Amino acid sequence: SGRVNVEIESHPRPRLSLKVAYFLSDTGEPGRGNFWVVPGSHLQDTQERSPDGLGQPEGAIPILAKLGSAVFFDRRLWHTASPNWSHITRKVLFYGYGYRWLCTKDDMTVQSLWEQSDPIQKQMLGWRVNANGLYSPSDEDVPLRTWLREHSPDEAK
């Protein structure tokens, strides 16, 4: 989907978010639609493509994730899927986490989910009282902070 921070003139460009891939099927062997990454590519401002435009770039490695694994990675890291040659359907949930002031590209939260979520769950799904909650959040915008102050004050600093 491209680089979000192309216009930022620093090297390396800053990390703005991370992703977590939750594997709901076993991709622990090659050929199962494995998730591929280029280690260290998050520190590069560009990524060379393979010469023929097909396949993986130089240095790419498959992530052999077993069912139930969670893989955390910096979104700047070059990553992609690959063909699945197995009889197992590859199922992976990707969650992106970023700073509050970065709005998501897609609002895909199902309305009934909002209605049944508690305040902390709503916060984790991106809910806020108003737009100011993105930049200068009140306790109402971040109920998890209030919970943390009550249950683990040392961690809430």
Topology summary:
Elements: E1 17-23, E2 35-37, E3 61-63, E4 70-74, E5 79-80, E6 92-98, H1 111-116, H2 119-124, H3 132-135, H4 143-151
Antiparallel strand pairs: 1-4, 1-6, 2-3, 2-5
Task: Give keywords.
single chain, alpha+beta, 3-stranded antiparallel beta sheet, 6 strands, 16% helix
What's the gist of this structure?
By secondary structure, this protein is an alpha+beta fold. It has two domains: 1-98, q2cbj1_9rhob like domain (Jelly Rolls, Sandwich); 100-157, no CATH class.
Q: How would you sum up this structure, described in words?
A:
The chain is an alpha+beta fold and 157 residues long. It folds into 2 domains: 1-98, Jelly Rolls (Sandwich); 100-157, no CATH class. It contains 4 helices and 6 strands, in the order ββββββαααα. It has helices spanning 111-116, 119-124, 132-135, 143-151; strands spanning 17-23, 35-37, 61-63, 70-74, 79-80, 92-98. The strands form 2 sheets. A 3-stranded antiparallel β-sheet has the order 4-1-6, with no helix packed on it. It starts with 16 loop residues before the first strand and ends in a 6-residue tail after the last helix. The model has no long low-confidence stretch (mean pLDDT 84).
